[in-house]
Every structure is written in structure tokens, then in C-alpha cells.
Amino acid sequence: MSHERPQVTPKHAGASRLPVRRPGSSDRRVQIAAAKLRVALDERLNRETPDWVKRLAEQRLAS
Fold first, then answer.
1. Are 29 and 61 in contact (CB under 8 A)?
2. Which end of the chain is more exposed for a tag (fewer CB within 10 A), N or C?
3. Eight-class DSSP state of 35
4. Euclidean distance between CA atoms 39 and 54, whole angstroms
5. How do residues 1-51 score in pLDDT, each as one tens digit?
6. Residue 33: its pLDDT value, please?
7. How far apart are CA 47 and CA 41, in angstroms?
8. What is the model's pLDDT at position 4?
């Protein structure tokens, strides 16, 4: 008698049918939102915000 486990197909086996999205688009939106929050926090705490963060915060969030 063998005590081997039966082969189970993973639930995500059909994951190749996921919708295609632009690479990094949601990552960029998160970066811009974080920069906006950083600018707001720095203003409240009277701290200097780095120029690169200000430039990033000025960008528009893509829909």
C-alpha cells in the first residue's frame, strides 16, 4: 500500500486567462498618490519636500 498524496490541480491553473493591463500603470498611480501625501505631510510638519517628490506629486493620475 502506497501512502502517496493524490495529484491536485491548483485553483489558479487557468490564471493565464487574466485580463492584460499596461505594465506598471497601477504602480505609477500608487507612487503619485504617495508623493501627494508626502507633500501634504511635509507642509503640515513644516519640512522641506525634495523637488523630485514635488514633481511626481504634480503628475496626473491615469484613469
1. yes
2. N
3. H
4. 7
5. 567 776 666 666 555 665 666 667 789 999 999 999 999 999 999 999 999
6. 95
7. 8
8. 76
Per-domain residue ranges for the chain?
A: 24-58
- 58's enclosing H/E stretch is helix 51-58
Residues 8 and 56: their CA atoms lie apart, in Å, by 47
Task: Give me 26's grid cell.
Answer: 497601477
Cβ density class 23-44: b for 16+ within 10 Å, e for less: eeeeeeeeebeebbebbeeeee
- Report how far residue 59's alpha carbon sits from residue 63's, in angstroms, rounded to the nearest whole number: 12
Q: How many CA atoms lie within 13 A of 28 on its CB side?
A: 12
Given a contact cutoff of 8 angstroms between Cβ atoms, the answer to whether 27 and 21 are in contact is: no
